[in-house]
Amino acid sequence: MSKKPYSGPTRKLLLAFDIGTTFSGVSYCILNPGELPEIRTVTRFPYQGQVGSDSKIPTLVWYNKDDIFECAGAAALRPETDTKADEGGWSKAEWFKMHLRPPSQRPAGFTNEIPSLPPNKNVVQVFGDFLRYLYDCTKEYIKDTHTNGDKILASVEDNTDVVLTQPNGWEGPQQAQMRKAAVIAGIVRNLDEAEKHVSFVTEGEASLHFCIQSGLSNEAMKKGEGTLIVDAGGGNVDLSAYRGKDNKFEEIAIPQCHFQGSIYVTTRARHHFNMQLGNSRFVQDVDNIVREFDKGPKHSFRNDQDSTIIKFGSVRDNEPDLNIKSGQIRVPGDVVAGFFKPSIETIVKAAKEQCESSEDKITSIFLVGGFAASDWLYKKLKEEFDPMGVRLSRPDSHVNKAVSDGAIYFYLDRSVNVRVSKWFYGVDSHVDFNPTDVDHQNRVHLIVTDPVTGNQTLYKRFVTILQQGKKVSEEKEFREHFYKIFTEGAKPYQSTIKILSYRGRSKRPRWIDDEAGKLYLHSLSIYADKYTNAATIEMDLTPLPGERKWSESQRKMLWRVKYDVVILFGLTELRAQVCWAQDGVEKRTPAKIIYEVEGP
User: InterPro entries, per this entry (predicted)?
Assistant: First the structure.
């Protein structure tokens, strides 16, 4: 429960969706003016095995042969569903969240075996269909569990806010796609409403809020020492480091995101069983073996000296040469440990990087997320960090709802008010040509003539607005001066500025054409280019005053509009404004953020 009464003027419904690669959950809060908010978790879904015992369902969708949604969640795993799917030619969407990851990133050193999306469906459509399913289930849950649930839903029909959780590695383009999915789901009517009513929080930050508000914070956190949140999920592992106390926290290291979650353990297991059984009659049992591995041994495995037994068939299934006896396959402990090894090595390396790069000493680690249930992962991390004096813990209390509940707490309390920039951010600018500068000499082919001054000018100069690794408060404004030239008589309307992110190794990036198109490794992910378009700021310059300037080179009068662009980088989303002076008074107007995304 939040510590502060809701101060809004009218009742509001607050929804938080934690859509994971393998499992998903929903939390909600009915906000009544003057009352303390009470957070609830949806614990009942159609065909769920034990109603009320689990707050997460499989992230799974079935479509029929006409590309129409058939079922999702627990219903998608019923034996009857498999039969209908086989007979009707249905298509299954699983692990579809991984298709939403930034296209410039892909797992390094690992064959990507993410299942394809169903025919004629893109990831935004599937995401939206599954989000609609969760939304419908939530409304039914509210109707069934609240007195006058129908009336409550009717009263908040036009006053609903949504928080969507996201991995650390997702940025503006992924947020834009998820907003489109919220429209497809029918939660909001259009993208304009989505801009107002849909917000985002990283899964690591949501987990931090849950730990703080649920009384799970340890002594190190209470003392203001550094704490690392390792959110190990199905697809990715997010690492976020914080320091603070008294409900005010700040990031103390650049957050990381790695594609080494539990599905990669499963994929390595599948590869092993395909190789082992590929030339035998048991190859048709691989899916069942992997499914049984996921259900039990993947979580309970804890000793690489003992064999793991996976039951998959009948007592008549025997093949000693393949370690199969009475319908059970025996897998040596070191082989099972090998399924985990790349993921564990990645997490250990990343966690140590966080500890080393932080200005504040990190003394504790919280291991959360679905992959945190692995005893082997927990054991190996303890072996690494106990000798360093870093205390590792994994909260047992309500882990299934940590992220969705934490997203509600984020919306209500905003405990994190300082974040660390992941990249350099800047713009493609220009500089007067200097014939004695070697860098300038190498770029004579980029020289243009300034239409007002007539000076020779070089473009492709990267001007940094925000440095990588810099702590940024939510209120911190970054201001950059610009001007726009128009032919006199033409009215200035829309103008755009591209905000670039630099993802290379240089501590002083200067030229955008440096090493263009070369692959390079950064935090165990591969990027194709160092400079990428982080966002485009679209501005309406109609209200701005201008000045007449004679262009000697063009032999005509031009119109120059001067303005500043104010950018807020410290929020969970990029925000921008246009600022100008008029009659000695500063004026501002919001600017629109546009991302290059795929999808409908």
Answer: ATPase_NBD
pLDDT, residue 111, reads 44
Identify the weakest region by mean pLDDT among 35-44, 80-89, 188-197, 485-494.
485-494
Question: CA distances (Å), 84 to each of 69, 76, 80, 499, in order?
Answer: 13, 11, 6, 49
Are 521 and 258 in contact, with CB atoms under 8 Å apart?
Answer: no
Same domain, 241 and 347: yes
Residue 177: inside a domain: yes
Q: Where are the alpha helices (DSSP H) in 296-450?
A: 297-300, 333-357, 375-385, 402-413, 438-441
Place of tokens 């504790």: 364
Q: Is 293 helix (H, G, I), strand (E, B) or coil?
A: helix
Q: Which one, of 320, 509, 317, 361, lies nearest residue 427 by Cα?
A: 509
Report, as an integer, the average pLDDT of 233-256: 87
Residue ranges making up the domain that contains 168: 12-203
Nearest to 35 by CA among 64, 3, 13, 69: 3
Distance separating alpha carbons of residues 203 and 19, to the nearest angstrom: 10
Structure pTM?
Answer: 0.87
Q: Which two tokens stand for residue 546?
A: 């201008």
Query: Tell me: the pLDDT tens digits for 399-419?
Result: 567 788 889 999 998 888 889
Q: Is residue 7 part of a domain?
A: no
* Interval 3-20: pLDDT, tens: 688 888 899 999 999 999
CA distance 164 to 178: 8
Q: Which pair of structure tokens corresponds to residue 551?
A: 């262009």
Q: Is 470 exposed, middle or buried (0-12, 13-18, 19+ CB in 10 A)?
A: middle
Based on its alpha-carbon atoms, the radius of gyration of the chain, rounded to whole angstroms, reads 27
Residues 499 and 444 in one domain: yes
- What is the C-alpha separation between 493 and 544, in angstroms, rounded? 10
Indicate the number of domains in the chain.
3
**Confidence at residue 512, expressed as pLDDT on a 0 to 100 scale:** 84
> 295 and 369 share a domain?
yes
Give the model's confidence band at 497: pLDDT under 50 very low, under 70 low, under 90 confident, else very high.
confident
Same domain, 262 and 168: no
Q: What is the CATH number of the domain that holds 59?
A: 3.30.420.40
Q: What are the beta bridge partners of residue 83? A: none
Q: Are residues 258 and 307 in the same domain?
A: yes
Q: Is residue 482 part of a domain?
A: yes
* Residue 417 and residue 250 in contact, taking contact as beta carbons nearer than 8 Å: yes
Tell the burial category of 464 from Cβ atoms under 10 Å away from its Cβ (0-12, 13-18, 19+). middle
Cα(266)–Cα(248) distance, rounded to whole angstroms? 38
Q: How far is CA 129 from CA 80, 132, 432, in A?
A: 21, 5, 53
CA angle 172, 103, 117 (to 5 degrees): 105
Whether residue 589 contacts residue 494, with contact meaning beta carbons closer than 8 Å, is answered with no
**pLDDT (tens digit per residue) in 297-331:** 898 999 999 899 999 888 888 888 899 999 899 99
Residue 272, C-beta contacts closer than 8 angstroms, at least 6 positions apart: 335, 338, 339
If asked whether residues 127 and 259 sit together in one domain, one would say no
User: Which DSSP string do the residues of 99-120 spell out, in sequence order?
Assistant: GGS-TT--BTTS---PPPPPTT
